[in-house]
Amino acid sequence: MKTNLTKPHNLKILTVSDFVDKSLTQMVEDKTLEPVDLIVSCGDLDPEYLSFLRDRLDKPLFYVKGNHDIRYTPSNPVGCENIHAKLIRFKSLNIMGLDGSIWYNGGVNQYTDREMKKIISGMWFSIWRKGGIHIVVTHAPPRHIHDAEDRCHMGFDSFVKLIDKRKPDYFIHGHTHKEFKTHYDRITTVNSTKVINTCGFTFLEV
Q: How does DSSP assign 116-159, residue by residue?
């Protein structure tokens, strides 16, 4: 007897942050970008650019705000969803979002590690009820993973604890600017979690 098995569909995610990469913009405008299922922004991009990606690619766009995102409003970027302090279900994935950087001068979207820990703790029940986390989306990196020693670019200790306790498959961030020769140069594996610096843009297939 023949059995028809449906092969699971890999989801392709475009992730962006920190600066507009002209090569990505060109591919979007020329319609040469391979189809994606979801767009994720890790912050520090103009809201109009996110609106552009959402409109041209016609796919859902989830975002968190960076420490320089001062012009965002509930309606701008258009058609996009801020997932800060939320656990969003997309297809088969649970995606958690956290805005901002470590506190350094009192500006917008800055948090002390204690404040960030409190936000994460307030989500524990939602995480448990929804069966865990597949992807964490943040602006800042975890402490001592892709971060720096100047106050502005230090990561969060609370993110390290989140990785240790909840073991997401992927932890995607921006904030620390760096050039990468390959996609794999962006990745640091912590236990079973792949921590990815998406500065500029990259693709994730899950």
A: HHHHHHTTHHHHHHTT--SEEEESSPBTTSS--SSGGG--BHHH
